[in-house]
């Protein structure tokens, strides 16, 4: 039985682990990998105290810092699949009695009094016909990984946020032609990045476009989209579709225990990171924090741990 | 000993993770950079019927992505 179980190995989870260890809280941290969503970033330039670091090395730095702590148990290469609350039935929930039974993918059962959730978010999918069937067969979600495989091909990037613009940047050295499909009037990503990619003749921006279907046989052959202004359906012949349309919080495994907002984010008290459940805290991208940033996740995790520590001291 | 091939791109993090996993477990492997090597790229696509990296070939068994549990099983690595 632990006092605290931390879910996640991104900046939030790791910061929580370090602070928990330093407060001598009997804690365990469960994560698949270290580094969070920045893992696939080529270059992170805003991690405070570090001018430039790859996502891969940032993950390593986080892992090393956590493993340097004496008083923390780590369960890695594993994922939490379910959380069961065993609160004694006849008592006031706010009294903070009870424990959680946490089950992992590899079949571990862990018991803990408190929970800090830093499970982050994952890539949002389009949810259109053909996307799942052609995943990996032209439909791609990691431009830094897979861009070189589209050498000489015509591709579409869906989504005009920063990650969409960066995907175009990753594809420019390889692809023959890159369409950026944006739902709104203009891409929401940084103007600096947009200006840079617009200099390339390979690049075409299509706005007011909503993807409805991806088609192909063994590999992607094209996509169908609606022109949201005219309502007209059109086709675009492409061999690759890079989906960059934001993120979905990894909150499913606690959806019956804590209050979520309409986006599926865990609602927290932003002073303490406490959720609607008296023994659960949440930090970082899985929470309803306004800005999703590595530095913010780490800071919020520190707040959460200090509040949990106060709770334990009571 | 198993015959292992990894098809990778230089910027692919999951390829790096897979290679570190091999190194940690003292497993020798052959690597093809499919960003440069077109023949290897075709070979990868025909083996895996898809375009994502890494593709890992363990004695003919094909893994797409870094499937740590699957690789550990195929290579009989415990823990």
Write a compact overview of the structure shown.
The complex is a heterodimer of chains A (314) and B (79). With 314 residues, chain A is α/β, with parallel strands linked by helices.
Structural classification of chain B: alpha+beta
**Shape-level CATH architecture of chain B:** 3-Layer(aba) Sandwich
Largest interface, C-beta within 8 A: A-B, 25 and 19 residues
Q: Globular, elongated, flat, extended or rod-shaped: what is the shape of chain B?
A: globular
- Helix run count of chain B: 3
The CATH topology annotation of chain B reads as Glutaredoxin
The CATH class of chain B, by name, is Alpha Beta
List key phrases describing it.
heterodimer, A: 314 residues, alpha/beta, FAD/NAD(P)-binding domain, 2 domains, seven-stranded mixed beta sheet, five-stranded parallel beta sheet, 17 strands, 21% helix, B: alpha+beta, Glutaredoxin, four-stranded mixed beta sheet, 3 helices, 4 strands
Descriptive overview:
The complex is a heterodimer of chains A (314) and B (79). Chain A contains 6 helices and 17 strands. Chain A is an alpha/beta fold and 314 residues long. In chain A, the strands form 4 sheets. In chain A, strands 1, 2, 3, 4, 5, 6 and 17 form a 7-stranded mixed β-sheet that branches. In chain A, α4 links the parallel β9 and β10. In chain A, α1 packs parallel to α2 and α1 packs parallel to α6. Chain B has 79 residues and is an alpha+beta fold. Chain B is built from 3 helices and 4 strands; from the N terminus they run βαβαββα. The two termini of chain B are 19 Å apart. The mean pLDDT of chain B is 92. Classes of the chains: A alpha/beta (314), B alpha+beta (79).
């Amino acid at each position: 039985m632990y006092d605290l179980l931390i879910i996640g190995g991104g900046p939030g989870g790791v910061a929580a682990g370090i602070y928990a260890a330093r407060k001598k809280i009997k804690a365990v941290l469960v994560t698949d990998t270290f580094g969070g969503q920045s893992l696939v970033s080529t270059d992170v330039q805003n991690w405070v105290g570090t001018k430039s670091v790859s996502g891969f090395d940032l993950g390593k730095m986080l892992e090393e810092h956590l493993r340097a702590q004496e008083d923390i148990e780590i369960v890695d290469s594993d994922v939490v699949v379910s959380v069961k609350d065993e609160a004694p039935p006849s008592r006031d929930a706010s009294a903070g009695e009870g424990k959680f039974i946490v089950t992992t993918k590899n079949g571990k059962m862990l018991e803990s009094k408190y929970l800090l959730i830093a499970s982050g978010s994952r890539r949002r999918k389009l949810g259109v016909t053909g996307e799942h069937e052609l995943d990996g067969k032209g439909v791609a979600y990691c431009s830094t990984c897979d861009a070189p495989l589209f050498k000489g091909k015509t591709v579409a990037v869906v989504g005009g946020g920063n990650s969409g613009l960066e995907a175009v940047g990753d594809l420019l050295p390889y692809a023959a032609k890159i369409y950026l499909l944006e739902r709104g009037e203009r891409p929401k990503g940084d103007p600096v990045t947009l200006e840079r990619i617009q200099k390339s003749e390979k690049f075409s921006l299509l706005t007011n476009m909503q993807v409805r279907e991806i088609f192909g046989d063994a590999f992607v052959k094209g996509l169908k989209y609606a022109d949201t202004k005219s309502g007209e359906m059109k086709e675009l012949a492409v061999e690759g579709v890079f989906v960059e349309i934001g993120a979905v919080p990894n909150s499913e495994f606690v959806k019956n225990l804590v209050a979520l907002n309409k986006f599926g984010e865990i609602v927290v008290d932003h002073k303490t990171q406490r959720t609607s459940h008296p023994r659960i805290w949440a930090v970082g991208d899985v929470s309803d924090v306004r800005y999703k940033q590595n530095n913010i996740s780490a800071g919020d995790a520190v707040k959460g741990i200090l509040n949990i520590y106060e709770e334990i001291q009571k | 000993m198993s015959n292992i091939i990894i098809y990778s791109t230089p910027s692919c993090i999951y390829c790096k993770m897979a290679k570190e996993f091999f190194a940690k477990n003292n497993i020798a492997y052959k690597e093809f950079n499919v960003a440069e090597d077109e023949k290897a790229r075709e070979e990868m696509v025909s083996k895996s019927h898809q375009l994502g990296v890494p593709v890992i070939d363990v004695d003919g068994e094909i893994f797409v992505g870094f499937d740590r549990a699957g690789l550990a099983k195929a290579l009989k690595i415990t823990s």
